[in-house]
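Extended Data, panel c. Modelled sequence:
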Amino acid sequence: MKQLVVGYEMKIQKKLWMALFMLAFIIPVIATAGAVTAPERESIVWAAGYDTQHDNYNPWSGEPAFGIPFMYEPLFGLNTAKNNTLIPVIGTDYSWATDGADLTVTLNENAKWSDGEVLDADDVIYSYNIAGYQPRWGGMQDVISSMEKISATEVKFVMAADRKFSFQMEQFLYQSIPIVPEHVWTKIETAHGEGASKKDFDLFKNDWHDTSFKDEWKVASGPYFPYFRDLTAGEEIYKLRDDWWGMNTIHLDIPNYSGIPEPDYIGMRLYADNPALDAAIMTGEIDLHSGFYASVWTGLNRNKYLDTWYGRDSDEYYLALGAVVEIAPNHMKFPFNQLWFRQALAYSIDYDSIEIAASGGYWNRARQGIIDNRSDAHFSLYNASIQEKYGIDLDFEKSVEILEENCYQVDGKWFTKDVPLAFQGTLGAEADEDVPHAGYNIELGGYEILVPSGWTDVVIATQMWAGDFTDLNITTLKREVDFWNGWRVKIIEGDFDMVMQCCTPDLTSSPYTVFSGWRGSDNLPWDNASYWQCPEYEQLYQDFDTATSDERYAIASQLQELLARELPTIVSHSNGFWYLTNTKYWDNWPSAKNNYQEIQTTFSITNMALKQRMFLGLTESDSSGGAIPWNGFAVSLIVGIISVLAIQLIRQRKQK
């Protein structure tokens, strides 16, 4: 009998081992079930720091989803950290005619669309034609007279008569104009183009996740396509295409890059505020932190995986030069359109205290003429004499002196001696009729400075600006508003007194791009938010476009002087971009050790090629592990199966 029991137990044990053996095949299936919502942590690069429109896959938008540079590609990129080196993408090179009347671009013959169609000259011409109708590329039609297809891989851009050797034309090549498939977008244009031109896609979101969106329209050339999105959680994920044309073809200069991207997925997460974002990078929940980290050096010392290339006092680290942090006064309103008023405010600011309190010391005072000699892209055009002549620092007595020249005081309050006739009707009745002063007299004060809520560093700066102005007896309040529906909308509608502005082109961009931040009439949050209009500045900007290398410095100096002298905005500091990275899962971020390009912010849409390269070049970190990503359902199911088998074995033994 004992032998029979033992034999039976052996059969049960064999069944148990067979079940466990089968589980070895079942587990991977279970673990990957629902992968649409949860890719393996080791296979995805998580970024944060971009409060984006997650449902907007429109490549023509000025406010697109995070993944647009990975879905669509430009002709070229420009690496300003490496002596303005041209980065080939869809284009391989370009050349000017000897007289500068036209420019010819050669295309990569390997470039293809995701549906297998060849990407050729027709697509480039069509895309640049569309771009000319979009607000983001205003002025293109003034630069380009016509475009001609020389062959399938050659496009000629013919310049307008007064735009020979146009610097702006070169910007159009390598900044952010996406190339779209003509055979798809002509259909989209018919269905969704707006206005008489039928090429204005301002309201079209190109939402690939919309169930009603046509599959035949989901065509692009880039390496990563939309995979998953959770609008409620503020999360979007993009998946690597196995058939991307660029594999083993482009960006092969990136150190440690094999030609085949290692990340299978890239994703963007939205966090409520900077503290939450800081915690996420510390724990390794995200890999790239594109925002303000108040105690960055403490964090670096506490966590061996954290790194940054910015801010340290060493030749190995870049200066943290982002966009200019400034106060943009509304030039459509009095007294913000008066130079004396802007000067009085500017001299009342305690810049040194703001630098310490708002940023922990990583901000740097901005140059009065905007162009910054600390930028690799600017130093050759920087005119030091302008800073010496027009530089502004805290001088409270100077502020009072300016106000006394243009105002008078009653009980400590400032009243204007007069108001230009054009603005009198917008200001109501005379504010101080009893005081014997001629002119239209109004009290200064009762103003607001708008700032997006949750932007910790600039919120602090705005509070301090408002306090400094109030100390001058010009009552001013900081007002925090939602970024998308408050701050942004107020700027577009011109409904504000002053706004905190730090979304103009960053100082690693070319001088031509940076100068554009103080001109134009579209008045998006990143383009001339103050509504300043200056014909002299506009003419100099156009002259700068076609200047020879010998002429460029002189014209750039005039542009710098106009900005410094006229003070269209009150420039405070150059914003520090830390771009903190966590290398627990992914390494080979642009850094001092590889130095292949400058790192890009998650919200950058002005240099698509460099942003794409930054993620393509990532390599798996040695510390990433590789464990099976067990999810709760998988673990519960496996434990349950094993428990049932074990109980069955025990019962059988008891029965025998």
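The longest strand covers residues 144-151. This feature is highlighted in the accompanying rendering.
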